Each structure stands twice: as structure tokens, then as C-alpha cells.
Amino acid sequence: MSFIMDKIKTPQMLGAAFHKMRSEAGLRPSKIAERAGRSRDILYRLEGGKDVSVSALLDLLRATGHAIQIVPAGLPTMDQMRSMFKEDADDDA
């Protein structure tokens, strides 16, 4: 697991990340909306960085095979860095 990564902190960052994920996966907005039981307008609001309900967000993520993970927002601790580099060294062995 990587502790150094971009973390989503704003609705705009969430929308951009969702759009990138959807585009890279080749998923059409209409198909995601249908699977989620939501309107395309909700998906476009999310991708545009606008407010959507938590349940709508979870429905859209579920429809794409994704989920939310809660992680600390700050920089990694020294213990996390040691663990990360130990895992990298173990992978090389």
C-alpha cells in the first residue's frame, strides 16, 4: 500500500478524480447512471465538483466498482515511511 498519494480534499478534486476514472475505464455516463439508479445530471454534478448527496456518491461509485476509503489527510509518519520502504525492499528480494 502506498502512503504517498494524491488525496481528495474538495468536491472539485472528487469530481475530477471520478471523471478521470470513468473516462479511463471507458464507462459511459448513461450506463453508470442506469446501473446506479440515478440521473445523468447527478453524475455530471459530481464530475463538475458540485454538491451531491452521500448516497448518490456511493451509488455512483458502486456502479463503477469503486468504494471510498477513509485515510489520514496529513503526510505519512516515519513509521509509515519505514513500513513502505520495507515493503519495497521485500518486493525486490
Describe this structure in words.
By secondary structure, this protein is mainly alpha-helical. It has a single domain (11-92), classed as lambda repressor-like DNA-binding domains (434 Repressor (Amino-terminal Domain)), CATH 1.10.260. Helices cover 60% and strands 0% of the residues. It is built from five helices and no strands. It has helices at residues 11-25, 29-36, 40-47, 54-63, 78-92.
How do the strands and helices of this protein lay out in sequence?
Blueprint: H1 11-25, H2 29-36, H3 40-47, H4 54-63, H5 78-92
Helix pairs in contact: 2-3, 2-4
Keywords:
single chain, elongated, mainly alpha, 5 helices
What is this entry, summarized?
The chain has five helices and no strands.
Number of strand segments: 0
- The CATH class is identified as Mainly Alpha
The average pLDDT is: 88
Mind telling me the C-alpha Rg?
A: 16 Å
Number of helices: 5
Assign the structural class, choosing from mainly alpha, mainly beta, alpha/beta, alpha+beta, or little secondary structure: mainly alpha
Span of the ends, CA to CA: 17 Å
